[in-house]
Each structure stands twice: as structure tokens, then as C-alpha cells.
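Students often ask why inverse folding is considered easier than folding. One informal answer: many sequences map to the same fold, so there is more than one right answer. In these notes we will look at a single instance of the problem. The structure comes first.
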């Protein structure tokens, strides 16, 4: 093995784990997605993950809960046309999310599975 190849392999082995060491999404139940509808309370366009806090009402319109939904990083969202100003408080959304396994009001969202309540996509995807 050439010395350059050895150093390249060693560098990859030393840094490759860091990229994969982020965190697991095992807390989300991706096998049983659910649909929720609610009003944006806050959109956090932050690294390493964005968050949407959504007020989800009960089926009868009664007071519900604010769901904390974790999404992609701003760099991924920007590639799909989103910015920190895409979602604002008061926007009404319909989302298919992967809920938290714990049953707490939260989950994971992806841009392909959310839209405004009137059916318009979030971006011009």
C-alpha cells in the first residue's frame, strides 16, 4: 500500500465516524406515520436541525397541545427553496409526521410530507 493511500484511509477512518455519530432517529416511529393539522407557533431554522412548533387542536376543536417537530437542517431546506421566513406564526399546515414512540406530542417532519392547509406546497418543489 502506498503511503498516500494509507494516510487517506486513516483520515477517512478517523473522520468518517464523526459524520455518522450525529444522533439516531429511533425515537421516531417511522413505521406508523400520522397526519396532523395545526397552526405554526414558531419555526426554528437552526442547525443541526430545524423545528416547527405546531398547535394541534383536538378533533372537536378543543384546546390541544403544541407539538415539537424536528426536521432537516437549514442547508437541506435551503436546497429545496426554504428560508427562515418560509413559515411564520399563524400559518396553517397539514403534515404527515413520524410520531415520537413515547406518545408525547412531537415527531419528525420532512418537506415532502407537509403542505399548507389550503393544499399549496410549502415551496415550489
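Output (designed amino acids):
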Amino acid at each position: 500500500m502506498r503511503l498516500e493511500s494509507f494516510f487517506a484511509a486513516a483520515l477517512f477512518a478517523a473522520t468518517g465516524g464523526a459524520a455518522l455519530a450525529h444522533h439516531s432517529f429511533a425515537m421516531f416511529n417511522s413505521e406508523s406515520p400520522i397526519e396532523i393539522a395545526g397552526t405554526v407557533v414558531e419555526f426554528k431554522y437552526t442547525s443541526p436541525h430545524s423545528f416547527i412548533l405546531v398547535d394541534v387542536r383536538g378533533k372537536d376543536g378543543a384546546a390541544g397541545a403544541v407539538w415539537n417537530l424536528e426536521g432537516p437542517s437549514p442547508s437541506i431546506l435551503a436546497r429545496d427553496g426554504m428560508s427562515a421566513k418560509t413559515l411564520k406564526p399563524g400559518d396553517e399546515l397539514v403534515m404527515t409526521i413520524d410520531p415520537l414512540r413515547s406518545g408525547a406530542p412531537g415527531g419528525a417532519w420532512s418537506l415532502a410530507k407537509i403542505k399548507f392547509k389550503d393544499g399549496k406546497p410549502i415551496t415550489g418543489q
